[in-house]
Amino acid sequence: MILERSNMFNIDTINNDLSRVIGKEHAEELKSLMRYYRLCQSAVNEIGTKLENLDGEYQSEYNHNPIHHMEQRMKAVNSLFNKARKKHIPKTIDAIENNIFDIGGIRVITNYISDVYTIKKNLLSQDDVTLIKSKDYIKDPKPSGYRSVHLVVSVPVFLSTGPVETPVEIQIRTIGMDMWASLEHKLRYKTSVEAEKVEHFENKLIEDANEIFKIESNMQEIYRDLSEPGVFKNE
Ligand code: GTP
Ligand code: MG
């Protein structure tokens, strides 16, 4: 099941936003970036289909769905240019293509911790998926307590002119990790916390993240004991 989180590819919105930032007078640049947004959307679609197929295979072979649900999003034009500014990347198509790999993003929410690695391994073993970047914040959580596996991969998108390797950012995490990350994000950005309360609040959030991880590890143990052979073959 794929949910659209926000900012899915809407040709008019993206065109309007790009015209505003780049300026209508730079018609060629505008056209190239629109083309690139479309490529990134196609690459997200390709990866989404691959993941749905993997989940379906596990469902029918092992009676187990590694994937709880997925969310797709395209980076909003203003976020793209804010990021470019922060990272001192020029506003040119070449610089963006070579430095920003998360215009198309897909978040995979798994049922168990081991499913994160099942998904990662099976996706990366496909011939047309190329790993560009990989970070394991489950093995090494961020100081905030954040856990997730982040991948940037590229897949060929087949245009009328031939295939174009296109990057997609994939975040893979469990339901518990996702629940924590969503609430933590809201707490951090949507509330105003007095400075002296911040440390206490951060420490509590780290404890909560650890607690959730412990609970998910325990539940995985129970599931492992109860499940049929084969489900955990990819660990
Ligand atoms: P970017 O190029 O900005 O993606 O840099 P990076 O690859 O070093 O980024 P990182 O691996 O830190 O991943 C950034 C994304 O991970 C963010 O957009 C968030 O979705 C998520 N993320 C990272 N750290 C946290 C955190 O502490 N809390 C929450 N809620 N999300 C986080
Ligand atoms: Mg990122």
Automatic annotation (TrEMBL):
Domain of life: Bacteria
CDD domains, per database record: NT_Rel-Spo_like
GO annotation terms (biological process): guanosine tetraphosphate biosynthetic process
A Pfam family recorded for this sequence: RelA_SpoT
InterPro entries: GTP_Pyrophosphokinase, NT_sf, RelA_SpoT
Pathway where this protein functions: Purine metabolism; ppGpp biosynthesis; ppGpp from GTP: step 1/2
Gene3D superfamilies per record: Beta Polymerase, domain 2 (3.30.460.10), Nucleotidyltransferase (1.10.287.860)
Name of the protein this chain belongs to: RelA SpoT domain protein
Lineage: Bacteria, Bacillati, Bacillota, Bacilli, Lactobacillales
